[in-house]
Amino acid sequence: MTVRIITDSVADLPAEVARRLGIEVVPLIVRFGAEEYRDGVDLSTEEFYRMLKARREFPATATPSPSAFAAAYDRLAEQAGELLVITLSSRLSGTFQAALQGRELMRRRAQVEVLDSGTAAIMEGFTVMRAAEAIRDGATLEQAVAAARAAAARSDMLCTFDTLEYLRRGGRIGGAAAFLGSLLKVNPLLTLREGVVQPAGRTRSRAGAVDRLYEYAAGFQRIEELAVEHTACPEEAEALLDRLSALHPRERIFLSKMTPVIGAHTGPGLLLVGVLGDR
Fold this sequence. Notes:
- By secondary structure, this protein is of the alpha/beta class.
- The chain folds into two domains: 3-28 and 63-153, Rossmann fold, CATH 3.40.50.10170; 155-278, Hypothetical Protein Tm841, Chain: A,domain 3, CATH 3.30.1180.10.
- It has helices spanning 15-21, 45-54, 66-77, 95-103, 121-136, 141-153, 165-170, 206-218, 234-244, 260-266; strands at 3-8, 23-26, 29-32, 35-38, 60-62, 82-87, 111-116, 155-160, 187-193, 196-203, 222-230, 253-257, 271-278.
- Strands 10-9-8-13-11-12 form a six-stranded mixed beta sheet, sandwiched between helices.
- Helix 4 (95-103) links the parallel strand 6 (82-87) and strand 7.
- The longest helix has 16 residues, at 121-136.
């Protein structure tokens, strides 16, 4: 029986990867005031960061509606009897719950398994990719779930920010709240632990923070996937990718601007390294 994969737009999958692996992406929502956009559909990454610089109000985000998930389920149920839905961490977003609720609104019949990845951004993307690759290679639904869980457990990230104000306003700051107030001139390093944002150190300069990102990747004994993501700092991202090519083939390193719904919670100046591998 054919299995299809569904995820949300926070997974930050490159469009060509989603197409190649047959992954359906349900977009989250970005709001500027009364204006509402589907993440990556109605609002491109480039347009979003132009608006972020030009607008006074902070953007807000919302989960996909349960009916949006139900529509995706019904569409794919025409092709497959089993669906695997992989969402970002339920501790960061209500998307997991919306995906569960979407099952109750389906019009067609299919088995729908909803998995909380406990991750976000490219870590979630790696998790989705491994599940989709397993299905491509003939895995059952249960085997694809196991592949996703194994990838989530082996995916990690480290990032640095220009400001934590966007995370604070959006309520996603988690344990990194300890950095607020006293560290205005210190570059914080953050990671994701147990599904929430956590502090991972600090440096006195942006250059020092970028060095830490490289050292973090270099600390892995085995790298299967490597990614550099950023919010409106392409030159730094390119320079870091050049350095990381000493650790992993350059053509296999993902380089991308983070999706608008992530940028709404981080602001400009985020630089992230994501790794699927073994320390």
